Amino acid sequence: MTDATILTELRAILGDGGLLTAAADRAPYESGARYDRGQAAFVARPKSTAEVSKTVATCMRHGIALIPQSGNTGVVAGSTPDASGTQAILSLDRLTAPFALDRANRSVTAGAGLRLSELNRRLAADRLFFPIDLGADPRLGGMIATNTGGSRFLRYGDVRRNTLGLTVVLADRDGTVLDLSGGLRKNNTGPDWKQLFIGTSGSFGVVTECVLNLEPLPQQTAAALLVPAAEQSVPDLLVAMEQALGSYLSAFEGMSKNAMAAALAHVPSLRNPFAGGAIPDFAILAEVSRSWPPRDGEQPLSAVLEEVLAALLDRGTLSDALVGRAEEMWALRHALSEGVRQSGKLIAFDLSFRRGDIMRFSTHMKAEMAQRFPGITICDFGHVGDGGVHFNLVVSKSDPRATDPAFEQALRDWVFQVAVEEFGGSFSAEHAIGRRNQGMYARYTEAELRRLAAQFKAATSPGPLGAVEL
Questions:
Q1: Which residue in 221, 309, 421, 462 is a FRET match for 189, CA 20 to 30 A apart?
Q2: Where does the pLDDT of residue 1 fall: very low under 50, low under 70, confident under 90, or very high at 90 and above?
């Protein structure tokens, strides 16, 4: 139980609705997007950087551990408390101001609690958007804390590449505020301090405001579903399309047969786009786009794409290609997560590899999984254009292994070992660390790097902040 005098102090800081202590009010904040659940001492909901600073300072002085929580859409238990009931949640859901568009700088200053969908809705009138495309609808602070990538990384990069400035509150007894919000695109006057708070899971400080780079909203888009002649030819197909399409190519997303079948089986709004309903073993969703309206005499973007694909079909790189409405094709891609989740107990991995290794890893795991863990269904998909793969394993709900923690841990350990040790990949491509990946961080991050991270944590936020130890 948190001392009543501390709660009184926090209520004075946060005002009406700013502090939640009742179990029913805390419950939505205590459960994560995928199987993780804890118990919070309370939920603090500040509305400004000043309130975050005072809240953090109060908690640090009283030794209360804080778990920053943004949109709570993460899947590695990085934004929920443990089961002790002693940790408190610092929610950003009311931190939606400011919102200031700088059209000339093509940037926006926004509160860390603003959702991605709302940000892009407000920017649409100016034909701008924040170019991180996700199936979920997170808040900006969480995107920064996890350095989100998304489906259009190939063209626009990740959050790190598109962040121009931050305001951060440190977990010390003063709730120190760092103003790193200059918004300059070029500033080589020392360390780029904002980068040290991006992708570090909120352990070094709480992001309260951000200055983001914006991109012109695409005015022309064309998409196609591609069936490669063989999975081994996917890297060559990617290189060929990059050479032929240049900066027009905005996405190159891979989808396995099992993942597509799960989506089509469990998401009724989808239609099967493949001839005769026969789902191929592997398909690529390729997208091309232009940021300007169609011009007189300009070859339509769909025609450009069809011309390139015709050449690849003639060359034998592709066995089939379907050019269609981008919205329908993206609907299939974005439904994969939900379809896989509905198929059984999901054991998910967010991995990345050198682009040329991603299909080799897939082929290797199909063969090895059948031998080592028979009965497990691989439903992988991901961002082939940047080497990322959501390696999802589904255990039937009727399988006793679905509720066996020891089995899940053995499976996780083996997949991570193969990905990192045999293929030189990363155990977390874009979901950051979280408690679920804490053991892998300890195992696969060099001791000297862990020591430096701990020293930086001690220098910036010495108090108990975040769900993980860096």
A1: 462
A2: low
Q: Is the pLDDT of residue 34 over 80?
A: no
Neighbours of 409 (CB within 10 A): 12
Fold of 220-337: Alpha-Beta Plaits (3.30.70)
Q: What average pLDDT does the structure give for the chain?
A: 94
CATH topology agreement for domains 220-337 and 344-431: yes
Per-residue DSSP letter, 469: -
| CB contact at 8 A, 180 and 165 | yes
The CATH number given to 344-431 is: 3.30.70.2740
- Res 88 pLDDT > 80: yes
Convert the pLDDT of each residue in 342-378 to its tens digit. Answer: 999 999 999 999 999 999 999 999 999 999 999 999 9
Tell me the pLDDT band of 145, cut-offs 50, 70 and 90: very high
Give the whole-angstrom CA distance, residue 318 versus residue 303.
Answer: 17
Amino acid at 336: L
CA 320 from centre of chain: 31
Q: In terms of DSSP bridges, do strands 163-169 and 206-213 run parallel, antiparallel, or are they unpaired?
A: antiparallel
Q: What is the pTM of this model?
A: 0.92
Give me the DSSP letters along 156-219.
H--TGGGEEEEEEE-SSTT-PEEEE----S---SS--GGGGGTTSTTSS-EEEEEEEE-EEPPS
CATH of domain 99-216: 3.30.465.10
Fold observed for domain 4-94: 3.30.43
Q: Is 274 strand, coil or helix?
A: coil
Q: Phi first, then psi: what are they for 78, rounded to 5°?
A: -100, -5
